[in-house]
Amino acid sequence: MERTGRSAANISIIPTTKAQRLRMNARSQPSDGNLSKRKVITKASTTVTSQPTVKRSSITSQTGHNVQVVLRLKGKYGIKQSLNPTVLLPVQEARDKKVILTTNNYVYSFDHIFYQDATQQKIYDQVGKPILSEVLCGYNCTIFAYGQTGTGKTYTMEGDLENANGKPAPNAGIIPRIICDLFECLNGRDGEHIVKISMLELYNEELRDLLYPGDENKTLNIYDDAQNGVKVSNIHEEVIISAAHGLDIVKAGVKKRMTAATNCNEKSSRSHCIFTINITLQEKNDKGAKVYCTSKLHLVDLAGSENSKASGSEHLRAREAASINKSLLTLGRVINSLSDKAPHIPYRESKLTRLLKDSLGGRTKTSIITTIDPLSQSIEDMKNTLDYGSHAKNISNAPLRNGIALEERHVDTLVSTIIKMQDELRRAWDKNGYCMPKKEHDELVIRAETAEQIAEQREEELKHEKERITEERRLFEEELRTLKQQGAEEIQRLSRKERESQEEIHRLSVELDNLRQQLSQKNKVLEEISHMATKASVKRERENDSYVEETHPQKKK
């Protein structure tokens, strides 16, 4: 892919000598990306020729235009398939606009329904081509795809990005077909033109510029502009000079987009992607004076809504799923609030809804492509998508055609902008030759001063905390020493008591042994006395018997 510096020069719309002297030779222009997202759109029945023509209407604003919502059913594209009769059925008298969900017998109406045999070309002819015609008439427009993971959103928006001499591939999606048709139209008209594109990714509530040539991510901020609606600061816009050049840029941006494999889809988009085409056209008014008109087209591929269990996501993937679902739930609340005409619309609850603010309820013409897979998608997910589309269809936008600037005013604006940028660049040079915009430099200075103040405050807090910890440690160590000393004294006391007890036990044991010996000796004495008494008793009896015999011999006879 080549990005030549000649492209900007070849399509310059600053014909004056003064402007030519000031014109920069940059190959592309980083500028604030105007993400005006407003609500919208005209019916898909709008007829547009294969080469949209620019027709200026005397009406500069339209009111009460509902958002156009179409339904696409995923299938093997190009092969006719039937619906799952147990889940979704067409309403026969209006099969191109109504389907009935058999689980609740609710009829859902859309501006158009594309069944499984619908080709990419058919989708583009009825959705993309009418929108491109409105963009070339000076309106800001938006097309975005909404649906569950694996239902064909990215295929519908991007499809096959390859091209042959600026012609889209057979399976090309809306983005490459719009780029090819845009240049086919511009090359066949008089007047100069500039086409710039940008690609913004919203991943985990963080913005990333997919076309930024540097390796490091830069800070992107969303802010509201009184005249141009929602804008993103510092976004890089690439000037493209042909369809082939534009498709090469798109392919480079798509490669940077966050994707991952899930159970729902082999390559699931893990982020929301907002692709913007910024068009400036030179024409002539009724008096023959040159005038300039700018318009924008936002093409949005939303990440698939899913739960971490169904998608098989774990750890980081679970966090991604939570972030994706949060932004899509907020989008759902915004759509419901707009549909119900609620007094407060929660645009600011997520970055996605802030970026889509002008596309939903604003001054933009908007088409929403809802995608479902009736053959494999769960009934709950299918119902959620159908409900989204049903509510979005009730949203009313007030499209407003962008103003037309005369050549002198347009040139003066460009020259003033260039001079201002050059002055800021000169003021931003530092001693090392590094430059940055003055606003960014001032912001960095303020951030540095704030960071320094915070650091000093943290240092003081850390000092006090360190002193507190030191004092607590001293008290703890002192208490620990006291406890250790008391413990040692108690151990010594118990040791002494134990020794005394052992000595007392030993003394009593010795005394008991002595008593036992004395008892044994006394028992022996008693036994001897008893024996002697027995012998004495026997002797006395014998003596008595002898005495009786001697004194009474006749008794014996």
Secondary structure class reads: alpha+beta
> Roughly how many Å apart are the termini?
165 Å
CATH topology of the domain at 39-49 and 57-424: Kinesin
Q: What is the share of helical residues? A: 40-55%
Mean pLDDT: 77
Instruction: Supply the CATH superfamily name of the domain at 39-49 and 57-424.
Output: Kinesin motor domain
SS summary, helix count: 13
Radius of gyration: 47 Å
Question: In brief, what are we looking at here?
Answer:
Residues 66-395 form the Kinesin motor domain. The protein has 557 residues and is an alpha+beta fold.
Could you explain how this protein is built, in words?
α3 crosses α5 and α5 packs antiparallel against α6. β10 (163-164) and β11 (167-168) form a beta hairpin. Strands 1, 4, 8, 9, 12, 13, 16, 19, 20, 21 and 23 form an eleven-stranded mixed β-sheet that branches. A three-stranded antiparallel β-sheet has the order 2-15-14. Strands 5-6-7 form a three-stranded antiparallel β-sheet, covered by helices on one side. It contains 13 helices and 23 strands. The protein is of the alpha+beta class. 44% of the residues lie in helices and 19% in strands. The protein has a domain at 39-49 and 57-424: Kinesin motor domain (Kinesin, 3-Layer(aba) Sandwich), CATH 3.40.850.10. It has helices at 6-10, 17-22, 120-136, 153-157, 174-186, 243-256, 308-311, 316-339, 351-355, 379-392, 407-428, 438-551, 553-556; strands spanning 29-30, 33-34, 65-66, 68-73, 88-90, 98-101, 106-109, 112-114, 141-147, 163-164, 167-168, 193-203, 206-209, 222-225, 229-232, 236-240, 259-260, 268-269, 272-284, 290-301, 365-372, 396-397, 404-406.
